[in-house]
From TrEMBL, chains A, B, C, D:
Cofactor dependence: Mg(2+); [4Fe-4S] cluster
GO molecular function, one term: 4 iron, 4 sulfur cluster binding
Record's protein name: Amidophosphoribosyltransferase
One protein family per Pfam: GATase_7
GO biological process, one term: purine nucleobase biosynthetic process
Key words, A-Z: 4Fe-4S, Glutamine amidotransferase, Glycosyltransferase, Iron, Iron-sulfur, Magnesium, Metal-binding, Purine biosynthesis, Transferase
Species of provenance: Synergistes jonesii
Metabolic or biological pathway: Purine metabolism; IMP biosynthesis via de novo pathway; N(1)-(5-phospho-D-ribosyl)glycinamide from 5-phospho-alpha-D-ribose 1-diphosphate: step 1/2
Catalytic residue positions: C2 (nucleophile)
Gene3D superfamilies for this protein: 3.40.50.2020, Glutamine Phosphoribosylpyrophosphate, subunit 1, domain 1
Cited function: Catalyzes the formation of phosphoribosylamine from phosphoribosylpyrophosphate (PRPP) and glutamine.
Binding site for Mg(2+): S287, D349, D350
Length: 457, 457, 457, 457
């Protein structure tokens, strides 16, 4: 998962500090690296680094750059490895001019395209599928960059929400299925695009609308022009997992509030079965909190902040030494002392991936005095890998792909375990099932036909 | 406010990684600097640095040090300025041997003691009152370090919870009034002291008991011995603000759960006046959340996560440039979109200090569509500065010292504003008023008599 | 000017520390950046950074890498600008496999080649002419890397001494004119190539021979194979300025000792005109020292270390603030107090470029008490820019291109000024004039015919 | 060995950049750490760090500080260990005001003074004898700082050249024997003190005179006042080793040119015995170069730059890994190839300490083709440790203390080995033997009587 941001000021105001702030608001979408790109004197300039936005970039430095158009990117783990050169944005100064791209998503036919290009002399600098888009552009006959980009996009398939920078023009494009979110905002004469609407608040911009699936926005001095890719998808495939886990609760994606979706998922769990008497509801922070609240309110059972997360004890703060491994998950999640004593605990999490966290949580809560521990998961079982930009493990590592629900309950040691169905997921989000991707839950991937014969994976 | 930690392993196991982890769990008590001290080859060694624990110290490096006794410190703002040399622990190798001290609190007669010592040739390296304790020790006739320390402690007055390291011995001491918390823990043969009990969980130790007011624990190869300062306080003065704001909710201080105290404070607010119909309750994250939950549950009104805090947008992440100042408090706290529309909002915070946050919050929530905004504060008005270790502004800057409650309501723009009383505060905590300090609320400071004639301030 | 180094261990021993040491011995050839490349798991790995070798690279880190073939580079100023991405070695993983190149020299037809390549979809990552070689390779039909390299080399003209790394093979090649030096060394089964023979001593290797003009050495598990470029130069053009200024005195280049050449240059100056009575000879450190010694010995006049250079007061040590500019050249060169009093000073420098140093020196020496100051320059006047890899200013800035020798004498304020002729230069080096380049002295550049029609500049 | 520098601008101009430049010129006297101190707002400010001046300090930062009085220090190895807190200047804000000291030398009664002070409550922050002077001042009854300093100086014995800073006054003082050099300079109304006169050139100041043994200079707004310590030395003891090795050749110390002294030492060696026919003279760079030149000129034998030192291959550049140790001294000193072939080599060094360098040199030169290798040492054998501020090894490690000259010749493998006598040393310097210290050569240390009964060592 990644986050992209783009800014264009028609009035010529410098925008790199806005990009910095926007990326900070998208930090939850990627903590591995961060970068920005802008054009100056006819060529692309890029600054990027490893770590969080404030570690990778210098706000001060950016604030002093006089560029009125820029893009930015935060990066999660990717197929491309963690090396510095795979950080984004990627940029190039090729024959037709400067170009930089920030990409959220995953191309499913990148391998085929790469060997096609390599045989034509292309030298790849990265192992990142985003570079494929740039190389495709450079190998187009067209000397007009926008045309070259559109031609390139018709050759690729899979998930992409991209922000592209040309010499004096910002482009935003979303794949025909609309896998990953992409939003358009405005502040006076300045336009912004962002992976999520929550990034507009911080820069004082207003959220205008989602970029549509298959839409290409061309933003320059004259304003915003909307174009369409000459590819029509048979159906939409907005990622349902964004609502479950990835997106920030204060975002609105494709017309639906993430906050509302999560509370609905909890309520749905409540409707799925009564909570025992003398029980309390707690969410796994932070991802399970809102579903827990929704469950508690629907069920009329008290909600407690029963699991504490130490904000300062994360991946970057404490290294996994021997002593730390012994201390186990405790370094991140502690039960609130005294809360669970003699109660039945209803613990809500957004999903179970490998199951390690879930198992430890159950035993920790039991150790804190709970008579019983009931796990409630605010999504269907994750049984299939995602090929559309989210870094899920292979099926072998997905615990729900390896066990049925009763086996899984035994493995994690819970007294009861309950999930919701795909239908309930879609209802909670509030979109028809044929507009949502649920492939990681039900295996319904994009097929040969849907991808216009460019399927590969 | 600061946090202290100490570790002694009778079995001779290295303890510096435990100190690192313990300090991480106390990180909320101070983010300005962090440090550790240990003894080796008869002299004190100290590592300290600015910033968070993981910025100031190297976990790796510490893990390799073979010291079985050590102390550590995290530091908030202090009177001593932000310079590096004021970071703690402070250490010295003086005639009687090595000594290091980590101190949470504030001496009220430090100025008088300093000039007394300077006239006897003392050279102060820092402007930190902790150094006074060390200099006093060096100017005692006694050649036994423990005696010198006890003599020194009888000369000082005010708040101190200290961890002291001698060549092969760890001392923990708490002032006769018990202002700041201090807890004792154990893991097998290893003993630990920490500002808060929440620091034991992370290292797999169990919380044994609070260090008592006026108690001195001497921990060495033979175990733990309890001694008493030859000073008896007329009454206890445990800081009530620890329960309101400073301590972590999963700590238990002087026998009372911080979590329970905060929920009680909210319930107390609920009993103080009905919530309007069609209202929702939200807490200011994170300090107001538990009181909000307590209020919502007692009042039977829905609790919502109505205010979002961007975890990655804090002091260290974003610099207060012009552009950022314009964006104002939004960079930290955003209203959840859609939640407040057409509702009356009951917003709960733990306290109001200068009032800036409160004012902005009210207008933000109103801007998010709330019909009315009702502020509820889970403590009495803060009207007096604290001289016992908490960095509060002077009365001129304390908004509640400058206005009565109705004026304050008008200033922050709320429709209603309600506080609780000092009695309600003590009841919510669960300790008698004469065992709690409430001086910043009611001005009842330690007087000449209580401080045995050593008052100065 | 730059330095290149390559290492191949047939026995499979790790060589990156050797490359580090070799680059250190070539540090005088470039202080702007340093880098190394090696192959591992079928792809190229590169580490590079700005500054001196020990600033840009971590000896420790390199020592731990298990690569038995590697190349390295130190970089002076270049046309490509100082940006990080122009540092070398350059590497790429293209269709036929991994490749990395370290280049000393300057291509004279790079611009023409770049646009040819860009029109075929090539995306340039740097503004460095070395990348042209890699892009040319990628656009060759041949799937054998060595062939692709040889094809590429036949398309370029100008100066290049290169070390190239393929997956398991080290290549060293020198242009058909032999502009820049390149030497081959051996230690047991391990082979090394280096810009100068002085780099072998430090790693305990022995200097075998110069790589010849137009020669390609292929070094792999089976040993060293010598191949020839299918281009025959009409004449050789070994850079004479290497002997005058750039190379280290303990190097031997194309069969001639740099040390001997410099002493001969001084002797030649002595034969050009008697030194006045009561005179002393001093060299401008360090570049003029050996010629001064040669002059003094030939003339029978005492040599003195009359000008002191503060080793710790260089470009990297002291910043050119206002105060420092006032102090002028003094921060680097001071006259030895007492030495010049009442004497005539014969000051020897290797060359005059812009003339600033020369002018300041004369007045400084006069200020130190010299009755007269005689400047002697151990090379002909520099009147033309170099297009073959040495960063000389344009003719406008070359003081000897703007004035005749008498005018120049007046400008720098010397009592007398003497140069040597191009013939004397070649004699002093000990090579025939038609094997040496003297273009920066006499303007005799490579012409259309000599460069096989690929001339551009 | 260390270097001190002080600056006072009566016109109120900022002087910290001057101190930075002055310290750079004294860099040869200490490379372990560097620091500066100034007073501002009534208290001492200090910046110091490890490494060279430009590594330890930021020229930029210093240039912006508005202090018109300041001192600085560069530090070699010392008894105090390499820890950061032993870096100088040392400073303190004690009862009578701010004070900072930079010290070159070594007190011989520091241990006795320390325990005296510790028993009076003094807490030592460092293990550096300079702190003793500050603690002594703090324990004087006098409230006038200058008096307290003078009282303190009468209690100490040994070598000290110090620069002291009070609130608005710079003090320079030299011990009664004048062991270490100290010089006074002026630029307009600004006065400077420096360990060596060479430090004045770089800042455009003129060298006025040496500070005399036992003299105290008080420099403030009114100019320079000279005072005398109430201690008269029986004889002077200027360190002869400064002329031999430590000082920069362009300094003049106690009226004698270091450059002239070194050339005289070489001439003296020449007079001690004829050079063989067909021989060449070379100096060990850089310390043996001038003596070699003197020898060659006196003997009429050609001087050659026969040993090359790689400027970029020093302690800080290359780490002593296994591979590097194998390469041995070669990484620093290489023979000039071709020079020694078939010749007899006369190699001159300033001194032999442990003998390792000497032994390696002989075998290297022989390996470079010399028929015979004659070692000439431009000082008497070093047989005794120095207690006056120079870090020499103990007698066990001093090779000349363990062997007579013939044995030593055999150990280092030279064909002949010759030293000079103490008398010749003094003559070469040009001062009477009873004004020079030669203790490390002849064991004639300061005795009980000379040190006024304060001897300890
Ligand atoms: N693709 C993903 N990448 C990273 N974290 C995820 C992903 N999907 C869900 N998560 C989060 O990780 C948690 C998974 O926990 P779980 O499967 O129990 O343990 P584990 O930590 O072993 O993977 C979920 O609660 C969710 O918050
Ligand atoms: N001594 C203190 N130091 C720092 N923060 C405090 C202190 N006491 C309370 N706080 C926190 O700061 C908040 C005070 O907010 P408020 O007075 O409205 O605005 P301001 O941010 O202007 O001080 C409280 O909600 C509380 O969480
Ligand atoms: N191409 C070059 N780049 C850098 N330095 C050079 C070059 N050629 C010669 N030099 C050195 O620079 C010195 C030139 O000095 P000079 O022309 O008097 O003054 P300036 O410092 O103004 O260029 C020469 O003595 C030589 O040592
Ligand atoms: N006190 C000292 N500290 C450091 N170096 C010194 C000192 N005295 C002399 N030297 C330098 O060190 C060299 C000593 O070399 P030598 O005794 O042969 O070998 P080693 O390097 O084993 O000590 C001398 O030539 C001199 O330049
Ligand atoms: S497979 Fe799952 S995570 Fe991937 S896009 Fe579809 S719903 Fe989202
Ligand atoms: S004054 Fe307030 S903050 Fe200070 S100790 Fe007393 S209750 Fe705590
Ligand atoms: S022009 Fe001058 S510097 Fe350039 S290669 Fe020829 S001789 Fe060397
Ligand atoms: S003992 Fe030697 S080094 Fe020390 S002061 Fe005397 S002459 Fe100098
Ligand atoms: Mg989770
Ligand atoms: Mg708060
Ligand atoms: Mg020069
Ligand atoms: Mg030496």
């Amino acid at each position: 998962m990644c986050g992209v941001f783009g800014a264009y000021s028609a009035s010529g105001a410098p925008v790199l500090e806005d990009v910095y702030l926007g990326l900070s608001a998208l930090q939850h979408r990627g903590q591995l690296s961060a970068g920005v790109a802008w054009t100056q004197g006819g060529s692309v300039h890029i600054k990027k680094g490893l770590g969080l936005v404030h570690e990778a970039l210098q706000q001060n430095e950016l604030a002093e750059i006089e560029a009125h158009a820029a893009i930015g990117h935060v990066r999660y783990a990717t197929a491309g490895g963690t090396e510095r050169e795979n950080s984004q944005p990627l940029g190039a100064n090729y024959a037709q001019g400067p170009v930089a791209i920030a990409h959220n998503g995953n191309l499913t036919n990148a391998t085929a395209l790469s060997s096609y290009l390599a045989n034509r002399g292309a030298i790849f600098q990265t192992t990142c599928d985003t570079e494929t888009i740039i190389q495709l552009m450079a190998h187009q006959p067209s000397t007009v960059q926008l045309e070259a980009l559109e031609n390139a996009l018709t050759k690729i398939t899979g998930a992409y929400s991209i922000a592209v920078l040309f010499e004096d023009c910002l482009i935003a494009a979303r794949d025909p299925w609309g896998f990953r979110p992409l939003a358009l905002g405005r502040r006076g004469d300045d336009y912004f695009v962002a992976s999520e609407s929550c990034a507009f608040e911080i820069i004082g911009a207003e959220f205008l609308r989602d970029v549509e699936a298959g839409e290409i926005l061309v933003i320059d001095r004259r304003g915003v022009i909307s174009r369409r890719l000459p590819i029509t998808a048979q159906r939409l495939r907005h990622c349902s997992f964004e609502y479950v886990y990835f997106a920030r609760p204060d975002s609105v994606i494709d017309g639906r509030s993430v906050y509302a979706a999560r509370k609905n998922l909890g309520a749905c769990l409540a409707r799925g079965g009564k909570c025992p008497q003398n029980s309390i509801v707690a969410g796994m922070p932070d991802s399970g909190t809102l579903a827990a609240l929704g469950l508690a309110q629907e069920a009329g059972v008290p909600f407690e902040a029963g699991v504490v997360r130490n904000r300062y004890v994360g991946r970057t703060f404490i290294q996994p030494t021997q002593r730390v491994r012994e201390a186990g998950v405790k370094i991140k999640l502690n039960p609130q002392p005294g809360i669970f004593d003699g109660k039945e605990a209803v613990i809500v999490d957004d999903s179970i991936v490998r199951g390690t966290t879930a198992g430890r949580t159950v035993s920790t809560i039991r150790g804190a005095g709970a008579k019983k521990v009931h796990m409630r998961i605010a999504s269907p079982p994750v049984r299939y890998p995602c090929y559309y930009g989210i870094d899920t493990p292979s099926s072998e590592e997905l615990i729900a792909a390896q066990s049925d629900i009763e086996e899984l309950r035994v493995k994690i040691g819970a007294d009861t375990l309950r999930y919701i169905s795909c239908e309930e997921l879609c209802e909670s989000i509030g979109l028809p099932r044929e507009e949502l991707c649920t492939a990681c839950f039900d295996g319904g991937y994009l097929d040969e036909e849907e991808s216009g014969g460019r399927l590969e994976v």
